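quick one: adenosine-5'-diphosphate bound model?
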Amino acid sequence: MTFYVYVEPDAERRSTAGAVYSEYGFAIVDSLADLEYHLPRNPETLLVMIGATVDLEEALTFAAYQRVQRPLLGVIVLRRTLEPDVLARAMRSGVREVVDELDAEGIRVASARSIDLSKALSTTLRSSPDVQRAKVVTVFAGKGGCGKSVVATNLAAALCADGSRRVLLVDLALQFGDVAIMLQLPPNRSISDAISMAGKMDEAGLRSVITPCRPGLDALLAPSSPAEGEHVSRELVTEILEVARDMYDYIVLDTPPAVTDQVLSALDLTDWFVPIVTPDLPTLKSVRLTIEMFDLLEYPRDRRLVVFNRANTEVGLSLEDVEEAVGAHLSVHVPSSRDVTVSVNRGVPLVLSDPTHPVSLAIRKLADRCAGVSSNVESRRRLFALGRKR
Ligand SMILES: Nc1ncnc2c1ncn2[C@@H]1O[C@H](COP(=O)(O)OP(=O)(O)O)[C@@H](O)[C@H]1O
Ligand SMILES: [Mg+2]
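yep, here:
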């Protein structure tokens, strides 16, 4: 377990200064890219010391990103000379201190200060009752092929709003999950790696099984072999979601075409229920049955956002027919478009590759609905900021 890490591309500095750092328990890596690999595997890291030969712009981008992703992590930047404008820009990016690389005492004091701050922040963040827990959004339908995975992946990408929110996408289609393919993620890590952690799941454990996708977006993938999915218990799903709720702003769940045990445990923790309907009678019937089940289970009606997928398909059913058959108001209409299939095959959600596409606009409307509900001041502020950007 390492708590501190020193990044320095220059081999000579790595061997001289690096030797001193390793004595103090620092891990040493030689680029920011290696650091991106190191951090998810060492989630307990409290301090990153960025060496003097790392490009300043890249260092500042890294710091700005970590300020949102890992608010506990302190970033200190070492430089050969200290220029006042560098200092000001560094502070704006969330760098805690900029220190002359030859000022050993200055580095020691700055490190101690940053580590103390991280520890104090970690205590306040954990004990503060005001900390917002993630909203859980569950996408489902009684049938396959309605667009659950398309909606879940695009919704997750839309919710993370270029990294300004932290989102975890969980693939609960444990037998035949499509999230890895739809986001082009390597299937090395999955929820089945969490089976051995049942009963003792914590933040570090969860970080070790998730797959980072892009800034702000992580995925917990389905097992690559269908048989493994059977060993993921209902309790484990609850445990994972409870831990994840303290780490993210949103958790989006993709589900299999059936209400499995694991889905039921997720539904119990769900804030937004997102049923998907398509304009064909079998789907309409299965969604109606699911919605009736929700009434029985007393899941609140005002927390349902029904998505009408392929809404423009001409099949002789009017909007009223569909609403009546489902027994619920349709909140968002997603048009049918072959660009969706192209984006699925390319492994890039349409909301990212073509943000103004009618399908993307519909999904963003859904994301706004999910984001806009909370009476919490912070999320209202965020919504306001997002609204102004457009
Ligand atoms: N709005 C849409 N327009 C065109 N094709 C769509 C749309 N939504 C889904 N599809 C197609 O349907 C296929 C099945 O969607 P998917 O999300 O995998 O369904 P599910 O997860 O419900 O089984 C996708 O591969 C995609 O090609
Ligand atoms: Mg699917």
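The radius of gyration is 23 Å.
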